[in-house]
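Listing S7. Sequence submitted for prediction.
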Amino acid sequence: MVKSILIIGFGGFLGTIFRFLVSRYFQFYYTSAFPWGTFTVNILGSLLIGIIYGISERGNVLSPEWRLFLTVGICGGFTTFSSFSNEAYLLLQGKEFFRFAAYSGLSFFLGLIAVFFGRLIIKII
């Protein structure tokens, strides 16, 4: 159990750093009321987790430790559902109803599509 916690913790550490860097990139290069950094991170994280689970379903390509590290650790630290929820709330609070609907709907819909394509990519390979 301790080994699993350390594996997940290290993956989460790296995922959080990657999330910070992606978010900063979008904040620096794209000034917008739409939260592009969080949106991008959640879609990429969904694609990545689809790819990882797709690889895992192919057989013994990934050990359980690697799967934990990549999914719960890196993807868990990289994706930002709590940030997503807060930003959606702020859009509602600011009466930005169209941006709220676009952000919430597209995040969910494109996240599902990204997971699907991640798994499909692995099936095709």
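Caption to Listing S7: primary sequence and predicted structure tokens for the chain studied. Residues 2-124 form one domain. The two ends are 34 Å apart (CA to CA).
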